[in-house]
Amino acid sequence: MTNGEMRDWLVDCIGLLRIPGVGRTRYRRLVEAFGSPERVLSASIDELEQVKGVSRANASAIKQQYNGIEARALAGKVIQLGWAALTLDHPEYPEPLRITQSAPPLLFRIGDATPSDEKMIAIVGTRKPSEKGRLFAAQLGTTLARSGITVVSGMAEGIDAAAHNGALEGGGKTIAVLGSALDVIYPATNKGLAQRIRNQGALYSEYLPGTKPDRAFFPERNRIISGLSRGVVVIEAGRKSGALITASHALEQGRELFAVPGSPQDNMSEGTNELIRKGARLTTSPEDIFDELPTLKGEVAARKFIQLPDMTDDEKMLTTLFATGPMQVDQLSRVAELPVAKLMELLLALELKGVVRELSGKRFVLAEEYA
Hints:
Elements: H1 3-17, H2 23-34, H3 37-42, H4 45-49, H5 56-64, H6 68-81, E1 84-87, H7 95-98, E2 106-111, E3 120-125, H8 131-146, E4 150-153, H9 159-169, E5 174-177, H10 191-200, E6 201-205, H11 217-228, E7 231-235, H12 243-252, E8 256-259, H13 270-277, E9 281-282, H14 286-292, H15 301-305, H16 313-319, E10 327-328, H17 329-336, H18 340-352, E11 356-359, E12 363-366
Parallel strand pairs: 3-4, 3-7, 4-5, 5-6, 7-8, 8-9
Antiparallel strand pairs: 1-2, 2-6, 10-12, 11-12
Helix pairs in contact: 1-6, 8-9, 9-10, 11-12
């Protein structure tokens, strides 16, 4: 396809989607019926009305409200910005998302992604996590990334950002799905993170250039997060958390749902605890994800721990806290919620077993064979 043909194709896609009343469901039906957006726009009102779900009012709007000037300007902006524009029949459209009923007809991407890679896990949660929740999200992101799994999230503050950063620290891929256009990074404090994700993964959005974030966009964005993923992990979510919307989409799309438990007295754990009561997989380590999705196998330290039968549950829990690197004793005590005396007993046992080693400044790190 030449540059001119690409622009014309994109103009038709954008122009059809911008017509009031079309929406993603009618767009999909229309394109399936006529073969391309261009043919939809060329069809008569009577022909359009033959498509299921298309009323005469819808058909009239398509003929009367198509704005070619606006569509051409927006298409030009997409090309100028260097975005990949993916329709449902594009070879680079993510396959797990394509097969969902709510897949966006037009998806924009910057960065690199492997469309055939189905090893994606979403990590979502509150924007205001505890230190323990933030650290768990980062460590989980790191562990999954080291196992060759792409970490998906929404690049919001809190759990999302921690999961992305963890995956980046693990040297793996991560994908961010935005509730705004790709040229409007939100929150602005995550611009640096967005650039790192672009260099080591991809950013996706269904919104046209210049679209600012809106409260209504984030629930819509969440269906893409879950649609891309094999499973969704929810970390620290209150009863009204947007992460629960992602969980709901995950169930509708047939995805596995995982939830990290918390204290019954913690408001930020009400949503996750409720998900567990309703059947979500209780998750305290990467092992729980691998057990539920055994095809997600890789060289990850958490799986090596299973091969050490003499490790206690407390020792296994402690080893998961080293996923992002060395940890100080005080930090470990705070995050693991263990008295320093008890913590030192566990660290000594792990050191004797060759699983961890001590560094200067009261810091501990996983031994090289488990890092």
